[in-house]
C-alpha cells in the first residue's frame, strides 16, 4: 500500500508536469522548449492582444526607475512584455510582473546572429505589447542584431504596432538613429575631447533601430555619474564633421528616465537629471581633426543644452519631435562649448 501511494504521488507529479510544461519555467526561469532564446517567462503563456499606445523610454542605467516602467506598462494595455538582452539573467521578469497588471513577462537572451534570425524569436518580439532592452554591451546588440529578423521585429513594434519600447544603459545607447558602439572599449570624456578621432570613438548612423523622433539623435547614459558630457559633445562634433549632420543629443543620468509619448513630448522621471543637446548648422566645430584637441567655441555658444531635474511623477517638458527651444519648460538652459579639449558650461 505504501509503495502504491508513492507511485501515485510520483505519477501525479509527472502528469502535472506534463500538463503544465511551463510551470518550472514560470517559477525558476529555466529554458522553455520550443521558445528559442527564452530564459524564463512569468504569467500566461498564451498570447493576448491589448490596445497599445506608443512611447519611448531611455534610462541612464544604475538602479531601475519604477515609475518609468509603470508608464510603459500603462501604455502596453496590460499585454505581453518582452525583455531582450545578449547577456545576463531574467531578473526583470519578477520585477516588472510585480509593478503592474500584465499578461506575461518573458526574457529572451539573443546572443548570436542565428538566434537573432530565428523566426520564433522574431514572432515573440512582434507579438509583445511592451519591449525593453536591458543593459550590457551595446556592441553585442549591434553585432548580433543588426540586419536580422530581431532588428526588423523591434522596428515593427516602433513604427507599425506602435508599442512602447525602452532601454537602459546599453539598451538606451542603441535607441538613437545614431549610436556609439563602444566596441573597442568605452571612451572617456577626456580621451574623446583630446582627440575626437580616438580609435575608441566608433559611431554608426541609420543601420539599427528607427525609433520615432530619434533619427538624428545620439543618446548617452550614466551621464553625471561617469562624467560623460564631454564625450557626448565629441560625438556630436564627429557626426557634423563626418556626415555633415547637425544631430541632437538626449542623455540621462543613472536612476533617471526620459519618457517620450506618441507626440514627441518628453518628461523626466527619476532622482537625477536628463539633458537635451541642440546643435546649430551655423555653429560647426572650429577644430575637429584627427590627433588634435576639439575646439567648438562659437563665442561660448556652441551647443544649447536644456537640463531637467527628474521627479517621481515626471518633471519638465521637452518636444523631441523638433527640439524647439521655445517649447521647453520646467528646466533650465545652458550653453556648452569646448576650448582646446576642455568642456566649458554656463
TrEMBL record:
Domain of life, source organism? Bacteria
Q: Which GO terms describe its biological process?
A: proteolysis
Q: Name one Pfam family in it.
A: Peptidase_S51
What is a single molecular function from GO for this protein? Answer: serine-type peptidase activity
Record has Chloroplast as a keyword: no
Keywords linked to the UniProt accession: Hydrolase, Protease, Serine protease
Question: Does the entry feature the keyword Protease, yes or no?
Answer: yes
The family database entries (InterPro entries) matched by this protein are listed as:
Class_I_gatase-like (IPR029062), Peptidase_S51 (IPR005320)
Question: What protein family is recorded?
Answer: Belongs to the peptidase S51 family.
Q: What is this protein called?
A: Cyanophycinase-like exopeptidase
What organism, scientifically named, is this protein from? Answer: Mucilaginibacter lappiensis
Amino acid at each position: 500500500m505504501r509503495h502504491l501511494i508513492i507511485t501515485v504521488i510520483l505519477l501525479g507529479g509527472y502528469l502535472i508536469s506534463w500538463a503544465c510544461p511551463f510551470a518550472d519555467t514560470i517559477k525558476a526561469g529555466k529554458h522553455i522548449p520550443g521558445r528559442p532564446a527564452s530564459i524564463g517567462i512569468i504569467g500566461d503563456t498564451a498570447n493576448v492582444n491589448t490596445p497599445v499606445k506608443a512611447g519611448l523610454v531611455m534610462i541612464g542605467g544604475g538602479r531601475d526607475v519604477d515609475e518609468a516602467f509603470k508608464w510603459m506598462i500603462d501604455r502596453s494595455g496590460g499585454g505581453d512584455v518582452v525583455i531582450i538582452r545578449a547577456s545576463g539573467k531574467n531578473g526583470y521578469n519578477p520585477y516588472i510582473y510585480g509593478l503592474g497588471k500584465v499578461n506575461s513577462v518573458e526574457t529572451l537572451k539573443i546572443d548570436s546572429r542565428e538566434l537573432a534570425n530565428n523566426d520564433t524569436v522574431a514572432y515573440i518580439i512582434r507579438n509583445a505589447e511592451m519591449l525593453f532592452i536591458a543593459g550590457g554591451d551595446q556592441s553585442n546588440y549591434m553585432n548580433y542584431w543588426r540586419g536580422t529578423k530581431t532588428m526588423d521585429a523591434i522596428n515593427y513594434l516602433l513604427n507599425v504596432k506602435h508599442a512602447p519600447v525602452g532601454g537602459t544603459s546599453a539598451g538606451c545607447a542603441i535607441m538613437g538613429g545614431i549610436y556609439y558602439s563602444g566596441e573597442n572599449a568605452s571612451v572617456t570624456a577626456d580621451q574623446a575631447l583630446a582627440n575626437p578621432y580616438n580609435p575608441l570613438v566608433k559611431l554608426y548612423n541609420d543601420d539599427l533601430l528607427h525609433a520615432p523622433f530619434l533619427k538624428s539623435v545620439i543618446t548617452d547614459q550614466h551621464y553625471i555619474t561617469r562624467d560623460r558630457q564631454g564625450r557626448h559633445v565629441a560625438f556630436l562634433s564627429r557626426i557634423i564633421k563626418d556626415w555633415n549632420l547637425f544631430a541632437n543629443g538626449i542623455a540621462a543620468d543613472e536612476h533617471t528616465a526620459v519618457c517620450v509619448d506618441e507626440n514627441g513630448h518628453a518628461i523626466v522621471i527619476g532622482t537625477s537629471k536628463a539633458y537635451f543637446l541642440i546643435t546649430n548648422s551655423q555653429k560647426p566645430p572650429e577644430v575637429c581633426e584627427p590627433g588634435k584637441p576639439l575646439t567648438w567655441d562659437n563665442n561660448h555658444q556652441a551647443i544649447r543644452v536644456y537640463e531637467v531635474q527628474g521627479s517621481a511623477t515626471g518633471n519638465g517638458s521637452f518636444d523631441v519631435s523638433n527640439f524647439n527651444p521655445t517649447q521647453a519648460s520646467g528646466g533650465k538652459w545652458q550653453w556648452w562649448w569646448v576650448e582646446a579639449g576642455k568642456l566649458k558650461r554656463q
